[in-house]
Amino acid sequence: MDIPKKPWTRYMKNTSLAWALVPIVGIVMLLSGIAIGQGRVHFGGVPASTANKDLPSSIDYSSVDDVYSVLKRDFDGDLSRDDILNGLKEGLAKSTDDPYTEYFNPEDAKEFTEGLSGSFEGIGAELGKQEEALVIVAPLAGYPAEKAGLKAKDAIIKINDETTLDLSVNEAVKRIRGPKDTSVKLLIGREGKQQFEVTITRTKIEIPSVEPSIENGIGYLKINQFGDDTVRLTREAAVDFKTKNVRGVVVDLRNNPGGYLDGAVDIASLWLDSSKKVVEERRGGKVLRSEYARGQAVLRGVPTVVLINEGSASASEIVAGALRDHGAAKLVGAKTYGKGSVQQVNQLSNGGALKVTIARWYTPKGSNIDKEGIKPDTPVEISDADFEAQRDPQKDKAFELLR
């Protein structure tokens, strides 16, 4: 899911978090652990779409009033004005049949924003939607979801014995998140395997956005998300790598669900000259805008390998696609998630917000990121046996190629 850092910028993470992975990401850090998304979220306006020009300028609410009158007269239960109005707004958003277009009531809108801080209590997994199913976009390394064996694209069929059918990402996040040391039970579906249950104890989630190191003369840069401090920390690491004359760099974007679009552009710019296009935004086949590299390309010409997998979404895919298309890096691992839609967040007068899909992302050479994902140059899978033995053949291959 990414989100722009200024009121007019956009956010992608599923997230996300963003919670937006997934045909799914968009994203946003709603975290159930996380819900980030995936696409980029605008907090401002873009040119109006012409796709829906035939819709009436206003809606005839007479039939809605009929439904309201019957509920008010006959419903056996308590209804509130706010609940009814929020239900109407949620229904309008759901009528798009788009998992990333979503209405947030004032409370949810506040959580959506606060979720981007990178600190919360949950299981440490970003959620999204894929073909109507609620799925794991990316489990966070070292947190309960990953330790319980959950993987990117696992489907969550039930939460505490309640079905997730027709459940929005935001609603699912609310059910999965909870106080530290409490637990949540999930029924999981995984391709090629029988459904299984897992009970996960929640914990406090604090996500370091960047973890740099130098291993055997090769710089290793693990980027967990694209947050407020990601660009600064990555640039500092890049300068350190250059000063110490590393003979290559491994950028690990695995299980990174996305974040700020600006961060993705700035990080790709560490390898690319300012004349190079990083990503293109299209609506209905027409180009709305393009983002170009900027600043000093500190690592230009340094041999680089980017690690990707099924949990690499949104902003991660933008970076990987740009470096690959310009020949600045080779990609190793598994095909990425495929979260390439762009969301715009519109603040509403009642304190709520409406997140709307407004466009799709394309790599510099015109590859559609959304749903398609990005294939690695060198495919390397991690088996269940590798996982249990804590082996990392993808990382090993990246270092081998640079050596």
Q: Might you state the CATH topology name of the domain at 207-339 and 364-402? A: 2-enoyl-CoA Hydratase, Chain A, domain 1
Question: Which blocks of ≥5 consecutive residues have pLDDT under 50?
Answer: 1-44
Q: Gap between N and C termini, in Å?
A: 34 Å
The percent range for strand residues is 25-35%
CATH superfamily grouping of the domain at 207-339 and 364-402: 2-enoyl-CoA Hydratase, Chain A, domain 1
Would you state the CATH class of the domain at 207-339 and 364-402?
Alpha Beta
Rough shape? globular
- Main sheet attributes: strand count, strand direction, barrel closure: 6 strands, mixed
Q: Counting H and I runs of at least 4 residues, what is the number of helices?
A: 10
Tell me the number of strands.
22
Mean pLDDT: 85
Helix content: 10-25%
Quick take:
The protein is of the alpha+beta class. It contains ten helices and 22 strands.
Would you mind describing this structure in some detail?
With 403 residues, the protein is of the alpha+beta class. The protein has a domain of 172 residues: Alpha-Beta Complex (2-enoyl-CoA Hydratase, Chain A, domain 1), CATH 3.90.226. Helix content is 24%, strand content 27%. The chain has 10 helices and 22 strands. The protein is globular.
